[in-house]
Amino acid sequence: MEFVYNANPSRVIFGAGSRARIGEELERLGIERAIVISTPDQSALAAQIARAIGGRAGIMYPGAVQHTPVEVTESALLAVSSVRADGCLAVGGGSTTGLSKAIAYRTDLPQLVVPTTFAGSEMTPILGQTEAGRKTTLSSPKVLPETVIYDPELTVTMPGFIAGPSGMNAVAHAVEALYAKDRNPIVSMMAEASIRALGKALPVLMDDPGNPAAHAEALYGAWLAGVCLGSVGMAIHHKICHTLGGTFNLNHADIHALMIPYTAAYNREAAPEAMARIASALEAEDGPTGIYQLTQRAATWRSLAAMGLTQAALDKAADIAMENPYYNPRPVTREGVREMLQAAFEGRAP
Ligand code: NAD
């Protein structure tokens, strides 16, 4: 047994109602005038939180959008300097966290993130941003949020079409962590626990969207998945989702939710130990089949055809996926990727 384990330093507060501790946690970080970031859709929640923290809310910025465009970051930086904000408070999903990270990358301001989806971005030093239509990714310790408050009372408002795919996005982080090149026993343990928690909670959430116990369990699984994503390298799944999402402007969580059974199946023979752990976590006969069954409950879209892709789009995606070589347990070939995309196009069981 030989491995390297690198922990990312962050403080995590978890529990129903824990948003009541935002004020004291800002104080702990020395933040006196935060820029309070949200999407337009979640501005009411952000305003409610701002009222609760009184003077520590320096300025509201309800303008976060998907893929962190640099124009939005530049406009948010003007808001930061207008009140000399000394920290970021992000309330929302991966898009909101992304804007907070983009500000922190440029200013080194401390961040307190309050996630309201299962995306997991809050636990990673990774920032994806878009400039002139091109999405690039960087990794920097400046980007990792200092404090994260997970309050499962804030995820209950997600409708099923957001909650299910968001949960599968987290599952995808954990699945790839199990066969990562730089995997290690601690992160693999977290990955398996994450898949177990999400596998149990997501079907309950889909039937009973307000179920508090299921939200707590799913958010716990999402936290673990975020740690996995921030700790070890990802492989074919994240690469192909990045390609499909970026090239055809598809929703981030939806494409992850649709593709994860197929990418797992691509690695079925090459990563038997990972597959066995996934199967055990999902109480399924086989890893990819267990994931596929879960997507049948949680994913919004069941095929690339239903998402509007064409055969020509699959050819293009397979070409792009071959452009930069990257680690994957099974060698990545154009023919293999194209076959995998075809199965996902048809939505057949992998
Ligand atoms: P999102 O943040 O775009 O949110 C999707 C929609 O759901 C938005 O309209 C938002 O307002 C709404 N929403 C969020 N929480 C809600 C709630 N509790 N109730 C009702 N509505 C709610 O989606 P996401 O999937 O969380 O994040 C996707 C983005 O995050 C992508 O840009 C992706 O690249 C990024 N991401 C980055 C990392 C990383 O490590 N850098 C990891 C995962 C995702």
What order do the helices and strands follow?
A: EHEHEHEHEEEEHHHHHHHHH
CATH superfamily assignment of the largest domain?
Dehydroquinate synthase-like - alpha domain
What ligands does this structure carry?
Answer: nicotinamide-adenine-dinucleotide
Beta content comes to: 5-15%
Structural class: alpha/beta
Low-pLDDT sequence parts:
none
The oligomeric state of the chains shown is single chain
Number of domains: 2
- What is the makeup of the main sheet? 6 strands, parallel
Calculate Rg over CA atoms.
19 Å
Beta strands, count:
8
CATH architecture of the largest domain: Up-down Bundle
Describe the model:
By secondary structure, this protein is of the alpha/beta class. It has two domains: 11-154, Rossmann fold (3-Layer(aba) Sandwich); 160-346, Up-down Bundle (Dehydroquinate synthase-like, alpha domain), CATH 1.20.1090. Helix content is 52%, strand content 11%. The protein has helices at 22-28, 43-53, 70-83, 94-107, 160-178, 185-207, 212-231, 236-248, 252-266, 272-282, 287-298, 311-321, 334-346, and strands spanning 11-14, 34-37, 57-61, 87-92, 111-115, 126-131, 134-139, 147-150. A six-stranded parallel β-sheet has the order 1-8-5-4-2-3, sandwiched between helices. The structure holds nicotinamide-adenine-dinucleotide. Residues 39, 41-42, 66-67, 92-96, 98, 116-117, 119-121, 124, 126-128, 154-155, 157-158, 162, 166, 169, 229, 252-253 line the site of nicotinamide-adenine-dinucleotide.
